[in-house]
Amino acid sequence: MMASSGPSSAEGKSVAVDAAVTRKPRILLAACGSTAAVKFPILCHTFSDWAEVRAVVTTTASRFIDKNTIPNNVVAFCDEHEWICWNKIGDNLLHIELSTWADIMVIAPLSANTLAKIAGGLCDNLLTCIVRAWDYSKPMFVAPSMNKFMWRNPFTEKHFMCIEELGVSLIPPVTTRSASGDHDTGAMADPTTIYSTVRFFFERQILKKKPGMV
Ligand SMILES: Cc1cc2nc3c(=O)[nH]c(=O)nc-3n(C[C@H](O)[C@H](O)[C@H](O)COP(=O)(O)O)c2cc1C
User: Fold this and answer.
1) 146 lines ligand 1 (CB under 6 A)
2) Is residue 92 part of a domain?
3) In a domain? residue 8
4) Residues of the domain holding 57
5) Ligand 1 centre and the CA of 61: distance in Å?
6) What's the domain count of the chain?
């Protein structure tokens, strides 16, 4: 099953290398309504020490996240902002602006619901509109988080196959040991693993294109 595969789809993707050596990388972090969204502020802190970060949270994700714990240098957007930014024809569309702005998108946690929507091409909120408008020559990483029952559902594998075809890279969930001693898969990878996966990928891209750079 795809849980054992690494973030291989990122291979062959390019990042805005020239821009990124003269400015910080631009990372768009997004959170869905999984329990692991409580770790989203930690993820924002971790990435914002290295990169310029903007955040997108779904309506359900906002139930798990204490807005006050998002770092001040991270602007966080929710569905309402689409309509706050847009009043009339000719105004910019927030989902297009964000998808164009970012060098890399990271959805962590990715819920079963948003996974299914992305796999089916649905776009009914800010996050899924960004994904639908995404330029897949740029990398996108997802770190799923769901309980073992949702994880084992046959749809999970089908949907991951669809999004891997699009060019999305999976940061696999981890296996945890429950109180009863069972091993359960589906918990989101640790924020430091997510960060180091994305940063390692980014820096390897730069070194490949600009040998001699540190
Ligand atoms: C307390 C609670 C915890 C939940 N945890 C998860 C979870 O870990 N993973 C998941 O995929 N869905 C989880 N769900 C279900 C999602 O919140 C639900 O499918 C929601 O529609 C997801 O919306 P989003 O994908 O737009 O963020 C949970 C629901 C509740 C009420």
Assistant:
1) yes
2) yes
3) no
4) 24-179+188-207
5) 8
6) 1
